[in-house]
Amino acid sequence: MVKADQVKSAQKCVLGVAARVGVRQLVFMTDAKNIAQTVRSLELLPCGSVVIFRAYNNPDRKDCARFVLQHAHACGHLFLIARDVRLARILRADGVHLPEYMLRGTRPNFFGFNFVTAACHNLAALQRAARFSVDLALVSPAFQTQSHTDQQGLGVHRFARLVKNAPLPVAALGGVNVKTAGKLRGLGLMAVAGISGII
């Protein structure tokens, strides 16, 4: 059982990442391998955070998504489903998250959703996301990250150049934690996003 002082310490760490960057909004990407841990993590996020549900290969994805959605809403968070617009409509999610490849085709029908995010790795993707009227671009990987060890982090200078003239609001994703977050301060970001770096 998690003790109250452990919860307070974890919450302080979560808020510390956002404070170091100079943003208030957090985007939490669910851990596809551990739904129970995901649900526990929701209680540590500040009210109004964005939760993006992935678990692409989970055979019980619909039931898991519904379970996480209920807990996310109970904590006052926005709940988005990655990639699957149809499932987002079935569960009445708050929005959807688009992997970058979904920005290359025709614009999906977002009617009725409150919030849409998209993964972007270069300027062309940012421009396409803006044309699709995406609300927030998750630019990654800002730094080297454990979840994508095969990808080299952009680093502060390349990341700053990429987002400087971004045509839509940006969140930093990838390797953002209490050690690296301060390097992103002053870049005009709306949010920070992550999994283990936030929780």
Structure at a glance:
By secondary structure, the protein is of the alpha/beta class.
List keywords for this structure.
TIM Barrel, single chain, alpha/beta, 6 helices, 18% strand, eight-stranded parallel barrel, 199 residues
Could you characterize what this model shows?
It is a single chain. The chain has helices at residues 4-21, 35-42, 61-74, 85-90, 123-131, 155-164, and strands at 25-29, 50-53, 78-82, 95-98, 115-120, 136-139, 170-173, 191-194. By secondary structure, it is α/β, with parallel strands linked by helices. It has a single domain, classed as TIM Barrel (Alpha-Beta Barrel). Strands 1-2-3-4-5-6-7-8 form an eight-stranded parallel beta barrel. Strand 6, helix 6 (155-164) and strand 7 (170-173) form a beta-alpha-beta unit. The longest helix is centred in the first third of the chain and has 18 residues, at 4-21. The radius of gyration is 16 Å and the shape is globular. It starts with a helix and ends in a 5-residue tail after the last strand. The model has no long low-confidence stretch (mean pLDDT 88).
Our estimate of the beta-strand percent is 15-25%
Fraction of residues in H or I helices: 25-40%
- Uncertain stretches: none
* Main sheet properties: 8 strands, parallel, barrel
Q: Which architecture name does CATH use?
A: Alpha-Beta Barrel
